[in-house]
C-alpha cells in the first residue's frame, strides 16, 4: 500500500498490519506522541475520509491501495 503524508507530500510503501508510527518514521515524518496508548490524543491525524485516528495505536489496514494521512489536525500540539 502507498501512504501519502500531508502536508509534506511524502509517499512511502507500507505493509498491512505495520504500525503507522513506524511507517512515518521510515518516511522521515514526525508524528508527535505522548502516552503511546491512544489516551492523550497527541498523535491524532486525519485520514482522507475525514476520520480522526490516534497514530500510536493504529496499523496499516487491509483492503486499500492508498492511504492519505494529514498531519495538520491540531495546530496547538
How many beta-strand runs?
5
| Name of the CATH class | Alpha Beta
Number of helices: 1
Number of discrete domains: 1
CATH topology: Ubiquitin-like (UB roll)
What does the average pLDDT come to?
92
Largest sheet: 5 strands, mixed
Low-confidence blocks of residues: none
Order of helices and strands, N to C?
EEHEEE
Which strand order does the major sheet show? 2-1-5-3-4
Span of the ends, CA to CA? 28 Å
CATH 4th-level superfamily: Beta-grasp domain
Helix content: 10-25%
Q: What is the CA-atom radius of gyration, in angstroms?
A: 11 Å
Structural class: mainly beta
Global shape: globular
Structural summary, described in words:
The protein is mainly beta and 77 residues long. It has one domain: Ubiquitin-like (UB roll) (Roll). Helices cover 10% and strands 27% of the residues. The protein has one helix at 20-27, and strands at 2-6, 10-13, 44-47, 52-54, 66-70. The chain has a five-stranded mixed β-sheet with strand order 2-1-5-3-4, covered by helices on one side. It starts with a strand and ends in a 7-residue tail after the last strand.
Summarize the structure.
The chain is mainly β and 77 residues long.
List keywords for this structure.
single chain; 77 residues; mainly beta; Ubiquitin-like (UB roll); 5-stranded mixed beta sheet; 1 helix; 10% helix; 27% strand; globular
